[in-house]
Structures are given as C-alpha cells and as structure tokens.
C-alpha cells in the first residue's frame, strides 16, 4: 500500500491573533504553526492502512515556505517514511493553483491512495483534494468519516445533512478525510529520533494561475456583552419572556 | 450584462432549500451586472422535472432538467461532467452552487474541469466590472476574508442560510437534456443513503440548536437536552468535542472548530464552559443562551442571556416553560 498524504502548515487558531498592517494577512508576531487538523487525520488514516496491509509506506507532501519542513518532520515522526516540500514563498489562497502543483508532484508517484484533510483550518476552502483528483484523472470521495479497503476497492462513508452516503470506488483514488475517522497519534520519542534520519526532499512548486486573492482580512464584529438573567430555576420565566419579547425567537 | 448559472440541488426527488438560495444568488448577480438571464440545472431521477417550475419563484429564466434513473442518488462524476459542459457551452459569467455536502464535492470538480477560479463557502457576493468580490469566513470563523475572484466563469459555493433569495416570480422555460457522460460508467458510486439515528432535524438546517457539554456529567443525562430540543419543536441536538470524544454522542453531533460550524437563530448551550474550539463553531448564532454552574465560564461572555446555576434544576424548568410558550406540551 503506497500512500501519499498532502498536509498544510497553518497558524494555530486556538491562539489569539491580530491582523497585520497590510490589512489582508495575520500579524505574524507570536503566531505558532501546526499541521492543519483534518490533515493530521489524513496522516493517521494512511499510517493505519499501511500497518493493516503489512507493507508499503506513507509519503507526506506540503507546499509552502521552508517552515513547512517542520510540519513534514512532525508527520514523519508520527510514522511517515519521507517528506516532500514543494517550495513556494507563500501558500496561495487559490485552491486550483495549489492543486496544479500537487498534481504535478503526484502524477508519476504510483500511489494507491492519495489522502487530504477535508479542508484547511485557515483558508477553509475544502477544494484542493477534489481538484487534485480531477487533474490526475483519479476517482475521488470527499469528506469521508469511515473507510474500508479490500481487494483493490474501497468503501467509504460521507456525512451529508441529516443522512450518510455509502460510497464505493476503485483504487487508485483520492480521498479527503473528515473528523471522526481516526484520531492522530502523537509522535513517539523513537519516532522523533528516527525522523531525523528519514529523507526530506525540496523542489520548486509548479503553481497554477491564481484567480482568487485576498483583498482584505478582518476580525468579525464583537458580540455585544451579554447579561446574566439570574441564578437558578427561578430565572427561567424571565429568560423565556426575554426570548419572546426582546430576542423574538420564541 | 451577464448570464449566470445555478445548480439546483435536490434529494430524494425534492428540491432542497439550498437550491433556491443558489438560484436566488444567481438572479441577484445577473441583475447586478445589468440584467442577464439565469439558467438553473436540475438533476435527478425521472420525475425531477415536476419541480422545475418552482425555481421561477426565485428568478430562474431557464431550467435545464437532466433526468436519469441513476440520479436517484448523487453521481459525482456524471453530475460534474454535465454541469461543466453546460457552463462551458452557455458562456456564463458565474456559476453558483451550495456549500452543502454535495456542493462542496461537486463545485471543485467543475472548477477543475473548466480551469476556473473557485470561491468556497461565501456569505456575500458583489459583482464588479472585472471581478466578483465575495466574503468568506476563515480561521474557523475567527476572521472574515474579502476575496477577489477573477476570470470567467467564476465558480462560487454559498454558505447554506447566508443569503436569502428575493421573490422574482418568473415562469421559467423548461428544457430537458441528457447527461454529458454515462452515469453507469462513473467510478465513484453512491450505493446507499443511511439515515442517522433518531434525529430528524439536521444541525446545518436547524433554526434552533440545543447543545450539551461536560456539565451534563453522563451520557444518559443528554435526555435533558433532547427533551428541551423537543419542546422547541424544530430544534437539533449538538454537543461539544469533549462529549463526542467520550462517546456520549456521535462525532457527527460535534459543533466546533473540527466539527460542524452552525448559525442557527437560537443556540442554547447547556453545561458548556465555552472552549475556543467550541465557540468557533457557534459564534455566529443570532441569539445565544447559556446555562452553566460557573458564573466565570467563557460562554457567558458570548451569550446574550445567561442563567447561572445547576442545569439539572434549570433545564427541566426551561423545558416546561418552552412547552407552554410553544404549545408543544
């Protein structure tokens, strides 16, 4: 089982952050970075499939400036075999521009499965995986929450609004991973030591044309300060009155 | 003047509300560009055409109906090929899809097939001379990006519920067409649709959401949350990550950074302290109510109305009062 997992380095959005002076990017001061949440699941799914198959390995690929090497090392210390950096001064906002660079890297790789997170936590476009599949001419199932692979075919489950789809597809294929499928393992000390000896290649990203760009980035308006209606069950009638007459939601 | 395309999503033979949102957005974009025509594409099993005329209400001038027995369920490859062919041949300035589960899968396929720019999950759209400018929540809703989408066609997916269609009262011309590729040849096949659990109202479409956190102390106490949701009549049940991690609720109920992002009219947070990871998923709710024992819990900073105290006393009382108010008792 030869697997590629495409991962993105993103700012840790659990932290507080501000907008930079250009009005269209994050203030870099104090920002920390990590692997995008769903991409961590993609790496975990890949590692589990290799373990189950008893052969093969996971290659992790990340596009961006040299900082992505740190993210690739983290995925390698989880158990991936090698990393590839597609060098680019910045990570474009345009999904198709990124997908073209990834497709160029992946097309002759001979991968059985190419895995992505469902969407990045920063740009939240959720399109690069599906676009990359199209450019490679491979079948694609997006936002999967369950996966079984057997005899060169896969069965996946996708969560829609209120219902789930059970989807079948042949390998090789591209999958994008939703939460709930496999919580990512933490790098082990052994993994961290071993990762230092594993290969990490870097080559220029062959980005496609960019048609989508950020004009402005702003923080959402602050919510007006709320109020405590009261304490204990005796406050309930007043709450219901406010919901009816003031908020008008009842 | 520019003609605009919209994909009218249906499921099980019925148009979904997001179909009207996509057609309505296309109408507004066409009008903003000086008045072009709006073409909607409706794909489904035989019989889908019976709903085509309904799309006139929100401004469709033409509805192209593509029926096939295989389209009783979503067929990603044939849908994408058919939509891409229509958009290419029609010379449309823009194409609108919903950022629903189906639209998020379909639109990137279409954009890649057309070598077109895609803006995802947008909450507002304005048409300018040489570009379409959209707003899109980023960093799990903690910032809003204004994006410029150049080139034609521009592909856009709309956040469900973000744009309200305007009544246009048109009588569309209905055309029928064949799929652009054989649905039977698709490699990706949806074998079945599985209904999840007993929940009838989905988080994405619910007007009211009642969500529970660790404060409920045990899985079985979620019955309090379910009863309150039932009292509202139209409410869905959500949960925090701590709760879904512990297996009290399925992962699909999780609201937050790594779960669902929701914007209901009313959000009731029960026993939820308000971790940033959770707030990222519900901060755009119109009215937020919080019930928590700890008066310093961060959720109270976001909530419009809070009650401090023991949820095991407060929630049953609230359920009773809501039943009275709604007549659901």
Please write out the topology:
The complex is a heterodimer of chains A (250) and B (329).
Chain A: E1 2-6, E2 9-11, E3 33-35, H1 37-53, E4 57-64, H2 68-78, E5 82-87, H3 95-106, E6 113-117, H4 128-136, E7 140-150, E8 153-159, E9 163-170, E10 173-177, H5 189-195, E11 200-204, E12 212-218, E13 227-231, H6 236-245
Parallel strand pairs in A: 1-4, 1-6, 4-5, 5-11, 6-10, 7-10
Antiparallel strand pairs in A: 2-3, 7-8, 8-9
Chain B: E1 4-8, E2 10-11, E3 14-15, H1 17-32, E4 38-44, E5 62-67, H2 76-90, E6 94-98, H3 101-114, E7 118-122, E8 124-127, E9 132-138, E10 143-149, E11 154-158, E12 173-177, E13 189-195, E14 208-212, H4 222-232, E15 235-239, H5 241-245, E16 266-270, H6 276-279, E17 287-292, H7 299-302, E18 305-308, H8 311-326
Parallel strand pairs in B: 1-4, 1-6, 4-5, 5-12, 6-11, 7-11, 14-15, 14-16, 16-17, 17-18
Antiparallel strand pairs in B: 2-3, 8-9, 9-10
Overview of this protein structure:
The complex is a heterodimer of chains A (250) and B (329). Chain A has helices at residues 37-53, 68-78, 95-106, 128-136, 189-195, 236-245, and strands at 2-6, 9-11, 33-35, 57-64, 82-87, 113-117, 140-150, 153-159, 163-170, 173-177, 200-204, 212-218, 227-231. Chain A is of the alpha/beta class. In chain A, the strands form two sheets. Chain A has a nine-stranded mixed beta sheet with strand order 9-8-7-10-6-1-4-5-11, with helices on both faces. In chain A, strands 2-3 form a two-stranded antiparallel sheet. In chain A, a hairpin with a 3-residue loop joins β8 and β9 (163-170). Chain B is α/β, with parallel strands linked by helices and 329 residues long. Chain B has eight helices and 18 strands. Chain B has helices at residues 17-32, 76-90, 101-114, 222-232, 241-245, 276-279, 299-302, 311-326; strands at residues 4-8, 10-11, 14-15, 38-44, 62-67, 94-98, 118-122, 124-127, 132-138, 143-149, 154-158, 173-177, 189-195, 208-212, 235-239, 266-270, 287-292, 305-308. In chain B, 59% of the residues are buried. The interface between A and B is large, with 81 and 99 residues.
